TrEMBL record:
<protein>
    <submittedName>
        <fullName>CoA transferase</fullName>
    </submittedName>
</protein>
<dbReference type="InterPro" id="IPR044855">
    <property type="entry name" value="CoA-Trfase_III_dom3_sf"/>
</dbReference>
<dbReference type="InterPro" id="IPR023606">
    <property type="entry name" value="CoA-Trfase_III_dom_1_sf"/>
</dbReference>
<dbReference type="Pfam" id="PF02515">
    <property type="entry name" value="CoA_transf_3"/>
</dbReference>
<dbReference type="GO" id="GO:0008410">
    <property type="term" value="F:CoA-transferase activity"/>
</dbReference>
<keyword id="KW-0808">Transferase</keyword>
<dbReference type="InterPro" id="IPR050483">
    <property type="entry name" value="CoA-transferase_III_domain"/>
</dbReference>
<dbReference type="InterPro" id="IPR003673">
    <property type="entry name" value="CoA-Trfase_fam_III"/>
</dbReference>
Amino acid sequence: MGALDHIRVLDLTRVLAGPWCAQTLADFGADVIKIERPGAGDDTRQWGPPYFTTADGVATREAAYYLAANRNKRSVTVDIGTPEGQRIVRELAAQSDVVLENYKVGQLQKYGLDYASLKAINPALIYCSITGFGQDGPYAARAGYDFIVQGLGGFMSITGEHDSYAGGGPQKAGVAIADLMTGMYATTAVLAALAHRDRTGEGQYIDMALLDVQVAMLANVGANFLTSGTAPKRWGNAHANIVPYQSFEASDGWIIVAVGNDGQFRKFVEIGERAELADDERFATNPARVQNRDTLVPILADMVRTRGKHRWIALLEAAGVPCGPINDLAEVFDNEQVVARGMKVEVDHPLGGAVRLVRNPIRMSATPPEATSAPPLLGQHTEHVLKTLLGYDDGAIGRLRENSVL
């Protein structure tokens, strides 16, 4: 029994932010019906390679990008540009608790699928719109892309190596964090709206914007600026106020050393056979190390290169010096803690074999999220949904297919 198995979600989103929200709700048991374009589907279905390969070695056209954000859903193909397709979506909305969409501002209004139109059919509906810049303001009509939002929202101004170092300059995150965090904030908003509806019976409209989320998730860095008026700089993998608190290259890979006090610094350099550094007045205290980081860090870098990363980690952990490796993804999924926590799951795929996915990280004692079904094939559930929810017969479905509505 899932926490949300009494909830139906009509998912009109594609790519990442909206599908990520919908997948999270589906993991909790919600019946998520994903509406896709006939013949094409979600853009990310084609965003490969890599693609899923069946048990007998046949490469499919199911891209890993699509697989990452669409498990536990049902796929229904509908051309919402046709009157018949719009009618189907309205009929499904009448039987849904939540609608998710990420079309451009005002685009669904011409199809009669905007909030006002669907609220008239289902007053208790929770309708969540996800856009790049929100429903109002001078940027509302712009298309929103995660990369652009990372730059516009200030994230890239604090991410990347310091300008004075080789390779310095702004850097985006390795994953689409504005999309992913918007998906998570949207999930929270939907759950809050459902809780409100449980008490009042009232649905509501949710306006989510990637730029808003990117600004909000600056967290303490944003608060630092609002408090001081000083824009922060990029420090790469180093720390503005603590030294050494950064990555170092060992003889066979990279490690992170996060020295938090002078005692830990002494242990670090003693292990590195450079104990004299802890007694040097330039480095004996953290304020001194910050002031003299340009002198100290190259010395430490040479010291760390004398051993392999696993040896360094074993020695530093034994001494109580905070540290860790910088793993590639092969090392991540082989990591004993990741394995113990079951972060990799396998789900049977309709084309044969099992698809490997990353587990929802939430642990709950009574209603844990689960990966129960693979990301659906395009239109896999069209006939079943139309028959069981809307009462369409084979003849009606056949006519819709003949007219390219499905």
